[in-house]
Amino acid sequence: MKIELKVVPTRFRAYQLGEPGSSFSYFAGDHFTLIEARLTERSYESLLSELMSCGKSTIDTLHITSWDQDHCSFKELQEILHVLKPKKIEYPGYDHDSDNCGNCLEEIIRYQNERKRMALAMEARRIDPPYVNGLDSAKHLGYSDIFYHPREFYGGSNDNSTVKLFRSGMFNVASLGDIEHANIGAMLRRCRTFKSEVDILLLAHHGAKNDVNSKSLFRVVRPAIAVCSSDYDNQYGHPHDDVRSALDGLDILTLTTKRGDVLIESIPNHRKEYRVTDLISDSTRVSAREVFVSKKFHLLSMNQDSIRNRVLPGFKGLK
Q1: What is the pLDDT of residue 25?
Q2: Where along the chain do its domains lie?
Q3: Of 214, 147, 228, which is closest to residue 185 (Cα–Cα)?
Q4: Check: CATH 3.40.640.10 for 10-311?
């Protein structure tokens, strides 16, 4: 078994929207993913600046975790499709009776058909249980993204959010959408890759107190950083005091978009260390900087026997 570290320039950004909602981006190698269909007056220039820093003018993938308006706004979705022209859209697999859901889904289908008429690359992917359960299982360390949920549908729409581990870069980012159910948290705690490879955890449901944002999950996963998307001035108090206390008790750095964007970027040689910059809104000033070592570097730097034992517990060698 031969698993090698790759040199992958990687960037993550959490955008301050100036209102309730979430917007993130993950760039690895040459692939730019915008997480959530939100684009406000406050975040627009930051997103364009981030694209420029990545040498991009458009996005490759639009990943939407939920049909709720704070994750996917119809008018902002229209602007994203018109200006940023994604080649792929990953959209929620559950049905919702809201006008916002219906309008957004129609817009995605319209955009897909328009791209196809123009003979341009386009894939619109519904992330539902048949799709997630039909994927191959992640069996070893690597750089392939992983979908964890929805494996089944729950009664509440929040718990049908998409859960994905962005794993194609030199550090990994886990997006939890709005999930809250204890069963989903328990499932994630049992997943070997999830509990050992997450560097940055995007807190579920904006850092609200629930059965997923729990000390039991944080203790098992041990991300270096937890990111909470807060509206300007944080009128909802995210993350919840109990969630922040649990993170602090485990020495997990908690960052929010209350004061401005959060930027995380790999630093040369793009194999080991990444730098976290907590930006202050409407300025180039910085409130904090820290450097971390990616879990991927640690795991892939193990000797082959250690890696084999982690991937195949109890493996005694071939006869």
Answers
A1: 98
A2: 10-311
A3: 214
A4: no
